[in-house]
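Anyone able to model this chain together with zinc ion?
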Amino acid sequence: MRVLLTKEQYPQKSTFCNLKTKSGFVLEDVENSAIHGTIDTPVVSFGLKNGFVTANKNRYFLYEETDKTKLKATSRYVWAHPKKSDDLIEWNGQKYPGSILCICENDTFSIINVLDSEIYVMSVLYCESCIDWDIEVQKTFAIMVRTYLVFRVIESRTQAKAGTRKWYDIKCTNAHQTYRGIHNHPKLEKATQKTSGLIITWGKKPIDARYDICCGGVKPNLLEGVANFEKAPYLARTQACTFCSKAKAFSWETIYPQKMFEEKIRSEFPKKKARGNLVSVSVSRTDKAGAVKEITIKWQKDTLKISGKKMYSLFKKIKSSLYDAFLDDRGIHFVGKGFGHHLGLCQWGAKEMVRQGYSYRDVLAFYYPHTSLMRLEIVSPASERN
Ligand SMILES: [Zn+2]
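re: yes, here you go
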C-alpha cells in the first residue's frame, strides 16, 4: 500500500527530499524496473533538473553497471529502496519502513511511502489512538483503521483503472488518517496482530469506516449533506451514542475576540458590506440533528449569512458542527458538543463501551450498524510492483 507523505508544487529550490538509511540505497526507475542504480552512502538527496529527478545533484544516476560513466536513463519516477530491506528510511525526522517513491509530474512532486499494510495499521494507531487505553479499544481501532485503509485503496485503484493515474492510496494527514512513520508499541502491535486482516464490511465490501474523537451525542441519520446514506447505510446510525457524555471532549467553548473575528470575516468576504458596529452573531439554520448549516452575522446596516461548513473551515477552534453562537462583551462565543464530524465510530464512546465490558465486536456493531466482520487475505508486499 502507498501513503502520500507530501505533494507540492514544483519548487524553485533544487533539492526537495533528503532520505537517510544505514545501508545505502538501490534506486529504480518505476516505469522500467530493469533500470536501476545504487548509492552506497547512507544519504540520498533528491532534486529536480529540467523535470527529471536528480540524486545527489547528479541527474544521470541510472548507469550501466559495467560502465559507470554511461547513462542508461533519466527518470521522473524514482523508487528508493534501502539496500537491506528491513532498514528504515529517515525523512523529515521520521522513520519509514518499506521504500519511498519520488514522483515528478504535472508541475508537482510527491513523496510516497510504500509499506506493508499491517505495519501501517499499527503505526496509525500510535497517532490516532491513545496508548493508555485498553487493548480491546486498540483492537476496535485497529479493525477500523484497517477498514478505512482498504476502502481508500480500492477507491484509489478503481480510479486508476478508470484512467486517472494515482500514485498513492491514502494521505498521511487527518484528511484521511494520521501516519507519521513507523511506531512500535507492544500493546498496539498485539492489537494489530490479534485482529490481523479483519475488516468491517457491508454487502461483502469494506465500509467507509469514518470515525471522530467524540460524536457529541447526535443521531447521525439526521445529519444532512455529510454522506450518502443510501450507499453507506452503516453511517446512518439511528441510535444516539450516550457513552461519550462524560468525556472531556463532549462539550467545548471557545471565544474569538470581536476584532479578530471581524477582520477574518472581512478578509474572507472583501466584497460584502459590513457597515456599522457588529450587532449579533447567531446560528440561523440547523439540520434535524442540530448541526449548524448557517450562521447570520449582523452589523448595524448589513447582514451576512455564512454556511456552517465555511465557519468550520475559517475558525479552527470550532471543534464540531453542533454548537450555538452569540456575541457579548468578551467576544464571539461558540459553545458546542463533540469533536469531529459526528459520523461513524466515536472514539471516547468506544473507550467507555469497553470499560463497561463490551467487546470490540459489540462496539463496531453499535457504531456501524448492519455490518459484519470479514478477514482479508494478506497479499505479499511484492505485489505492490504491479
Ligand atoms: Zn459518542
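The mean pLDDT is 89.
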